[in-house]
Design a protein that fits this description.
heterodimer, A: 195 residues, mainly alpha, Rna Polymerase Sigma Factor, Chain: A, 2 domains, globular, B: 132 residues, 6 helices, 72% helix, rod-shaped
Amino acid sequence: MILYYSDESLIQGLRQKTSGSIRYLYKEFFPIIRSIVERNSGNRQDAEDVFHDGLIVLYQRIQNKTFTLKSSLKTYFYAICRNIWLQRLERKYRLLYRADFQVHEDSEEYITEDLFIREEQLEKIRLYNQHFLKLPQDCQALLKLFFRKVPLKEIAGVLGFKDENYAKTRKYMCKNMLRKKILNDPICQQFIIYE
Amino acid sequence: MNETGNMSECIERFHSNELDKEDLIRFLYRLEKDPIMRREVLLDKELNVIFSDENLLELSEKLQRIREKYLPGRNNWEPFLIAASVIFLFTFGILMLIVEKNIVKSPNDQPVTERYSEKIKKIFCPIGQPIS
């Protein structure tokens, strides 16, 4: 068990999505994110969501080959989460709310970039994924293959369905199940207004 | 296939451009009239986009699992605290009941309360007369 990860090894670990480095990030970085969220009208659940979304943004950024860290990873991640939380507050309260954040260490050095994905999109990804994980195992496996654009014939073979048609029908049912779960979730309903 | 199945199939075929001209006209007409169907179609399109990023999906899933299992300070102490409180209250209640029923007696089998009431009388009424 590694007790200390350098910034570079954490970035490498996150690139490869290794559980050890993700756990370390949760252990080391979560308390500070929790603190800023809770000090600014949020609760623990909000902090967990912001942290989750922050890791998605960080993951996307480090995929870029030209990514260079100009401050410590903690400071950089703090700034990402701070941005997410500010955007979320603005969206949720529909006010020109500006929280009085305490400036953390050298966070002023951080150059604010636009988030790769919009904050709302991050919340959607997280919530849709939560519902996806509540689907029966066979549905999850089927949909994962379908979204990966694996042909239905191959999906039927991999999952042991009798034929392609059954795989197709099952796919409709699973997707329908997922849509219904999302549409019936009151939290999801707030941003599924396409009218 | 039932109505829901048909609708799911239509949505799927619509997004894959598999509907023939006639079905497409019917589908678009229905889409215009039915706001629920409109929501489903747009949500389906969004799902296709979001879940097509396999890496993101994998990471999000991993984060979700780690978050539920290992997040610091999420050690679920509450059930233990509740159990401890219940045990404490139960024990305290039993003790109170024992005292109340005078089960604890003096060596001379005299109930504790009576024994002490005699002493108290002696202390406050030295000439042996009760206070009126």
